[in-house]
Amino acid sequence: MSDDTDKATLRAIARQRRRAFVASLDPLAHRLAFKVIPSPLARRLADAQVVALYMGLDDEAPAQRLAAPLQAMGKTLALPRVLDRLGSMDFLSWRPEDRLFPGLFGTSHPEPTGDPVTPDVIVAPLIGFDRAMNRLGQGGGYYDRVFARYPDALRLGLAWSVQEHDDLPADPWDLPLNLILTEVELIEGYEA
Fold first, then answer.
1. 137 is in an annotated binding site
2. What is the SS3 assignment for 43?
3. What pTM does this model have?
4. Which domains does the chain have, with CATH numbers?
5. pLDDT tens digits, 135-149
6. For ATP, which residues are the binding ones (predicted)?
7. Binding residue per annotation — 10?
8. HSE-up of 88 (CA within 13 Å, CB side)?
9. 183 has binding-site annotation
10. What DSSP string describes 112-125?
11. Is 189 annotated as a binding residue?
């Protein structure tokens, strides 16, 4: 079985696990998840100016819930804008009250009125992760390309705890995450 097939199988299993976990969550627990930035993470974000979030789709961990505490810390927020089907995206400044526009693959992004911003922190969705800080994404390579384009940005994965795997395959172009935040813990890995 090839790595691509392994990853495809892992994605299917991980999506089902995530879906079942989120469906089983108490509605109040779901609404409260990811509304607070733990102090170890706040310290790691202290010097960051621009934090790129994403709008969680379906049962993804909802990164948009981090917006209020990040704004209270004085951070500029951004959202990704998917540019094409070849894996290209950039980041646009965003405030939670801004109107969002539909993008590719069911994504939403702010109105592209200004130049794209350069993130100091990139909060990335994922399907699975392991303690070696490997990230299993959707398979389109968008975040792999963005991580390579902004090598100095802190790479923060956001996930539900059930998305953890013992060991994930990693390709040579897969950059490890620096941190992973779940609803129950902050996992610290490589320095940015």
1. yes
2. helix
3. 0.89
4. 3-188 (3.40.50.10420)
5. 998 877 889 999 999
6. 7-11, 135-143
7. yes
8. 5
9. no
10. --S-----SEEEE-
11. no
Place of tokens 């993008």: 103
Q: Is 118 annotated as a binding residue?
A: no
The reply, when asked if residue 142 is annotated as ligand binding, is yes
User: Is 44 labelled a binding residue?
Assistant: no
Instruction: Please indicate if the annotation marks 73 as binding a ligand.
Output: no
Residue-wise pLDDT for 45-67, tens only, equals 999 999 999 998 889 999 999 99
**70: its two tokens:** 């990040």
Q: Letter for the amino acid at 18?
A: R
9 is in an annotated binding site: yes
Alpha-carbon dihedral sign for residues 39, 41, 44, 45: negative
Determine whether the annotation assigns residue 139 to a binding site: yes
1 has binding-site annotation:
no
Contacts of 24 (CB under 8 A, 6+ apart): none
C-alpha angle 95/99/103, rounded to 5°?
Answer: 105
Is 8 annotated as ligand-binding?
A: yes
176 contacts 132 by C-beta, under 8 angstroms: yes
